[in-house]
Amino acid sequence: MVGIIIVTHYTMGEALIACAQHIMGRALPQLAQLAVSKADDPDELMKRAQELINQLDDGSGVLLLTDIYGGTPSNIANRLIVPGHVEAVAGVNLPMLVRALTYGHQSLDIAVSKAITGGLEGVLYMLPTVPQDEKGD
């Protein structure tokens, strides 16, 4: 199963994991997070990230999901990429995470593709809905 590590500012990853567990209705042992703060030593973060990769990689690869491209979390994720083995996607949101988890039993490249489409398709402009009892005849 593809391992997934959420690399984000502060506690965003923790919140995403709690929400994903609620939605999926089960424990998610292939999922971990690395919280990044301004006070953290980048070399120590790299070491912790590599340890998480080693823990979660069962040979299927690892997908790193990060928040803002160009920020410290994404820069750390970028340094960890090993094409075909450790891949990274920026712009993590809950639809992206749920889609990646849903397809984590497939290959890493499919999990990456599904994560991206899930993230994109999960962003919608919402129009107000009119309750049925307020519609005119």
TrEMBL record:
Signal sequence segment: none
> What is any one GO biological process for this UniProt entry?
phosphoenolpyruvate-dependent sugar phosphotransferase system
SUPFAM superfamilies named among the record's database cross-references: PTS system fructose IIA component-like
Looking up InterPro entries in the UniProt record yields: Bacterial_PTS_sugar_comp, PTS_EIIA_man-typ, PTS_EIIA_man-typ_sf
Q: Which GO terms describe its cellular component?
A: membrane
Family matches, as Pfam families: EIIA-man (PF03610)
Protein name as annotated? PTS fructose transporter subunit IIA
Question: Which organism's genome codes for this protein?
Answer: Deefgea piscis
